[in-house]
Amino acid sequence: MKISEIFISIQGEGVEIGLPTVFVRLFTCDLRCTWCDSMYAVEGADFKEMTIEEVREEIERFDCKRVCFTGGEPLIQQKELEILAKDLIRNEYNIVLETSGHKNPPPVFWADSCLISMDCKCPSSGMEGRMNFELFERLRYKDQLKFVIRDEVDYSYAKEILSRYLIRAKIIFQPVYGTSLKWLTERVLEDRLDRVRVLPQLHKIIWGDIRGV
Ligand code: SF4
């Protein structure tokens, strides 16, 4: 597998925010979001080739039963990821799959012990045309759909998507790093979007915009 990094931190985003988690960042992505904060895992050669067994051993080393697959886009390495995820589930791990809303997660990620964290890319990302909106309606109540919002255009777009599709998953509005959390919170309150959770990236509040946290 092409692995960018494996580390332990707290979950910085979404409904599991604050929980200790082992992050497995898989290398490469087929999208190019303008504000991507992990380009080192998208382009270049900054990755390590590891066998599935080596990745598994590295995860075990942290002695933490919660694993988040992130990237890059983890589902580009779907075949290996499925084998690894099945193995972890058998060993009572809880898994979060972070994915970008354009690839259908394979069956293993619909298990009870997996949470799918899917992005809906808004216009400021430049990738909104790549989304597969049908996937949003497949998400379960326990899953989450995350909108990363930079401006009023993104905000209106997110609202439009929520009114157009029947989405059971939990909804996260997260400001692009550097965008006002107060502005976004007040917009959600003004519009009484009572199913939307406004959440910051907690790890960046704690450590700043650095790698490996
Ligand atoms: S999908 Fe994620 S990793 Fe890929 S370019 Fe966008 S923000 Fe970066």
Q: Please, could you describe this protein's structure?
A:
By secondary structure, this protein is α/β, with parallel strands linked by helices. The protein has helices at residues 52-61, 78-90, 133-138, 152-164, 181-190, 202-207, and strands spanning 2-10, 20-26, 48-49, 66-70, 94-99, 114-120, 144-149, 170-175, 196-198. The protein has one domain: TIM Barrel. Helix content is 27%, strand content 24%. It has a 9-stranded mixed sheet with strand order 3-1-2-4-5-6-7-8-9, covered by helices on one side. Helix 5 links the parallel strand 8 (170-175) and strand 9 (196-198). The structure holds iron/sulfur cluster. Iron/sulfur cluster binds next to loops.
Largest sheet: 9 strands, mixed
CATH architectural arrangement: Alpha-Beta Barrel
Q: What name does the CATH topology carry? A: TIM Barrel
CA-to-CA gap between the ends?
21 Å
Bound molecules: iron/sulfur cluster
List the helices and strands and how they pair.
Blueprint: E1 2-10, E2 20-26, E3 48-49, H1 52-61, E4 66-70, H2 78-90, E5 94-99, E6 114-120, H3 133-138, E7 144-149, H4 152-164, E8 170-175, H5 181-190, E9 196-198, H6 202-207
Parallel strand pairs: 2-4, 4-5, 5-6, 6-7, 7-8, 8-9
Antiparallel strand pairs: 1-2, 1-3
